[in-house]
Amino acid sequence: MMYRHAHVESGMDPALNPRHRSTFEVVKRVTAFLRPYRWMALGNIGCAVLSLVCAFTYPKLARFIIDDVISQKRADWLAPAAAVLALAFFLREFFNSLRIRINNEFEQRVIFDMRSAVYARLQRLPVSYFDPRASGDLMTRVIEDVGAVERVLIDGTEQGTVAALSILGVLVVMLVANPALTGVALLPVPLLIAGALAYTLTASRRYRAQRQAASAMNALLLDNLQGIRQIKGFGREEHEDKRFRQRADDLRRANLRIMRAWSLYSPGMSFCAALGIVLVLWWGGRQVMHGSMTVGQLVEFVFYLGLLYEPVGRLHGLNQMLQSARAAGERVFDILDTPPERSEGRTRHLPRVRGHVQYEHVYFRYGNDRTILKDICLEARPGEMIALVGPTGAGKSTLVNLLPAFYEPSEGRITVDGEDISTVSLASLRQNIGIVSQEPFLFNGTIRENILYGKPDATNDELLHAARAANCHEFIERLPQKYDSLVGERGVKLSVGEKQRISIARALLKNAPILILDEATASVDTATEKLIQEALARLLEGRTSFVIAHRLSTIIHASQILVLRNGEIVERGRHEQLLELNGLYARLARIQNTASIEEGFARLIL
Questions:
Q1: From the CB of residue 115, how many other CB atoms can be counted at a distance below 10 Å?
Q2: Which of 64, 166, 331, 445 is 20 to 30 Å from 28 by CA-CA measure?
Q3: For domain 442-511, is the CATH number 3.40.1190.20?
Q4: What topology is assigned to 345-432+514-606 in CATH?
Q5: What is the CA radius of gyration of the chain?
Q6: pLDDT tens string 168-185
Q7: What does 121-175 look like in DSSP terms, one character per residue?
Q8: Cβ neighbours of residue 84 closer than 8 Å, sequence gap 6 or more
Q9: Cα(first)–Cα(last) distance of the chain, in Å?
Q10: pLDDT tens digit string along 284-296?
Q11: What are phi and psi of 193, to 5 degrees?
């Protein structure tokens, strides 16, 4: 079968580096996920605005307490005035608490929708999309990148709106109160704008490198966890330690580049804001000394100045989040913008077929790479067994992978019962095809769940019948939890033979009229092999089958044997016919003491 390798040995895997997108494009795309919850967004912003209105009362109340209560020695007004100020503080935090609750619900719903959309699209992408990509990278996109994109939109929508309203409102109040002092307060603004621009123009590449480094590290981690037995078996723990430390160090350095830039940007912006307060105290202090301004008015203005620079600081933080979201958004939308396998709206439903399969002058190549299959022509009548033999890399797996449309032919066409498979829906096509892989994949669940994967709505009697036919009922019954026993990740708790029989039971339960069987090469004891062969005989009976054979003994009775070499069918016929032909197959059959057909071909070719 065809496998993809998750390791990236040197440099950056091109698959980790999606198309660059503008901040505007990312924001526009994510906004679509907010529309179903527009009322929550409005409620979120409404609570933030009410909290802001309460905060706007602080300066006025502070000025009133200083100028009209304390300065006038109105002791009877002090307690009520302080109570009103306390109420303003309470109301601000009350609306802030309500905003947080709405925001949390809003955030989690959008994350759920976006993550579900990304996962659903992943499920419908062609197999060719996954071939060059590491599983760990795709996991990072679904788990981490979605959250990074979503946060900036939800927090950004609320914080950005409130910050803009706050800045606008405070500026109006300050201009009405003291235009000259407002002008002094705004002197550092050009520095704030210049700093923000300098940071924004350079931040995207830092965040992009950070997301790529995180994906590369996660890809290696997942790969090593899945291959932990091989690592231990070959004693490569120290080697893998070094590889992981290198990836982790790449991520560390990428994070530090972001942090160093932020360590200059954030304090620099805070200093510019502090300069505004210093200038106001200097200029306003002179006005107080000259009697043209009261202490309460100056305190009020400083309060407003704090309300001005607080949202400015939030906008700086939002700018950092936006650059992170842009890098993450590029990776998320790389998935969402990849076309699915096939547009189901333009295809027809394929009913249950008899199993008449034809390949008509089929060619296949991966992208612009070399041609893998060349002018493949074959016909399998209902119930026939087509055996494929050939050396490693001859194109056997590619040939059978075209039938369920895991890949599309570059030229030619494939028909099932006369229907071109490119014109039928993938779901109905694949419902007619059962697959038993060379290395059976079991999900991390129970035996029952794994067998029922072939037919989720099957009755218990159907389940038991399939298990008995696959010769796995007996060993399942000996397990403590029987059919509810957990198999572990990839079926690690079961032997090779047990996993093979469960995968056969799954295919039997599906009861598809066409079967693709990649014969297992793993060694099992004689008794287990006999059980597997009996189960396979029941599975093949009455079905059109394509068998990738690794031992000649299993295909002697095949309806047709196809010998592939370099992507071409070089011989075809029944076992006896090919022996009489005295060609490559006959020479292979005469070789003794080979563990597999591939080994025999290797001897012939060498």
A1: 18
A2: 166
A3: no
A4: Rossmann fold (3.40.50)
A5: 35
A6: 888 888 888 788 888 888
A7: HHHTS-HHHHTTS-HHHHHHIIIIIHHHHHHHHHHHHHHHHHHHHHHHHHHHHHH
A8: 61
A9: 23
A10: 888 888 888 888 7
A11: -65, -45
